Amino acid sequence: MDLMSERSSEMDDEQLLKKRKNERFVYIVGIFTQSLWALNGIQMKTYRTLFPECYSDHSVLFWRLFVVVVIGYCACKYKRVHIQSLSELKHLKWFICRNMTGYFFILCWIRSYLYFRVSTISVLGGTVPLIVIIISVLLLGEKFYWRYIIGVLLCFFGSSIIILNDRKPESQTQILKDNVFVGLLFALGNILLSSLSNAAQKVLTKEGMDIDLQSFYFGFYNCIPALIIGIIIGEFRISNVKYVLYACSNGLIFYSANYLTTLCLRYIAVSKFQPITYLSIVFTFIFCAVLLGEPVFFSDLIGAAIIICFQYYNFINPPGRKIGEIHKEENNIIKENSP
């Protein structure tokens, strides 16, 4: 019995080390993913200024999701993944939450860029983790840690410092409307629907639904209404090859970011992963300043510093353990297993 328990203990130690290494790798992948999401948002902002004559919300939405459908379908066929019918799905309600909301929250997201800086929209999107954490704890049964609330409040505080000092850029290349209240309504619609979609994505991933299959479904069920509604209201036009290619490249970035996000959620809890998404705010500020010439204020730097400090703390000390406890535990395991 002693031998059996000793072997079991060794296996537990190896699994612990492997889990911690996986989580750290996921954090690194998650950080890179946030840079992709930042680029994705910047592209959405620049459509109107680069292609003012042929731009329409629905054509952008269709072409970017059409790429997702094609790549997802080809990947499923290559991996021989069965494309299930709705009757075969285990969690039809969560499937609907994931795939029937995309058209609406992406449209709200596109419209909100008319009223705010790209970086400001990123800050507003920073409230999504709080909603996702609540959904994950209440509906998905994930373990709750007070650090989640503390971390979200800190990041929200940092985000508030940025948004309260938001000013409209004077650059003539920016197209901003004055009705901030309407802009906030669009932003709120995006926040609520995307939070629900993110939580549903976790459920489907946990149930083993293939990443590429999820992307295929998401693209298919959201590009179809974009095409139909765009044609009906006369907002679907194909008059510029560069415009179509630009929209398709945005779809490729979106697919990559969505794929990596789903991959991360396979190995880490939603409530652990969501705080990383605040880094997209930092990347957005950097990219907007360099690529779009948007102004950077001192308040932006203070808010970004608060967010980065929390992310660094969360990275070296994952939730559930005291400061330094994980490193001591890993070192002890390594010493015990070393010859």
Give a short summary of the structure.
The protein has 339 residues and is mainly α. It is 75% helix and 0% strand. The chain is built from 14 helices and no strands.
Ends distance = 24 Å
Using the alpha-carbon principal axes, give the shape: globular
In terms of DSSP E residues, the strand content is under 5%
Q: Write down the domain tally.
A: 1
> What does the largest sheet look like?
none
Q: Give the SSE order as H and E letters.
A: HHHHHHHHHHHHHH
What would your notes on this structure say?
This protein has 339 residues and is an all-alpha fold. It has one domain (20-337). It has 14 helices and no strands. α2 runs antiparallel to α9 (211-232) and α6 packs parallel to α8. It is globular and about 45 Å long. The relative contact order is 0.19. Residues 1-11 and 323-339 have low confidence and may be disordered.
Write the layout of secondary structure elements.
Blueprint: H1 2-50, H2 57-79, H3 92-99, H4 102-112, H5 118-124, H6 128-139, H7 146-164, H8 180-206, H9 211-232, H10 241-267, H11 270-273, H12 279-292, H13 298-316, H14 325-337
Helix pairs in contact: 1-10, 1-12, 2-9, 2-10, 3-8, 4-8, 5-12, 6-8, 7-13, 8-10, 12-13
